[in-house]
Specification:
By secondary structure, this protein is mainly α. Helices cover 91% and strands 0% of the residues.
């Protein structure tokens, strides 16, 4: 059981990195992240590094929430969606 949990956790981490690269290609998500990065830089200059770090953490939380949702949806689909039917459809 421990091996299975380790493999699931490792897959989650690897797919999280892949998800980050996919999201970077999405225009809406990329624009949002870009805006947040610019805000971080401005806040660091005006309000200090602590405020910029808090915004950076918010950006990372946004990614983590997206990754967690994608992982859970994949888990749900893997157990409830007839994947064989989907693969057979043209």
């Amino acid at each position: 059981m421990e091996e299975l949990l380790y493999r699931a956790h490792r897959l989650y981490e690897l797919e999280g990195d892949y998800l980050r690269s996919l999201l970077a290609k999405d225009a809406t998500y990329a624009k949002l992240l870009s805006q947040m990065e610019r805000l971080e830089a401005r806040l660091a200059q005006k309000l200090g590094a602590d405020t910029a770090a808090a915004l950076h953490e918010a950006r990372e939380l946004l990614l983590a929430m997206t990754r967690e949702t994608a992982f859970k949806m994949g888990y749900l689909y893997a157990h409830t969606y007839p994947l064989e039917e989907a693969a057979a459809k043209p």
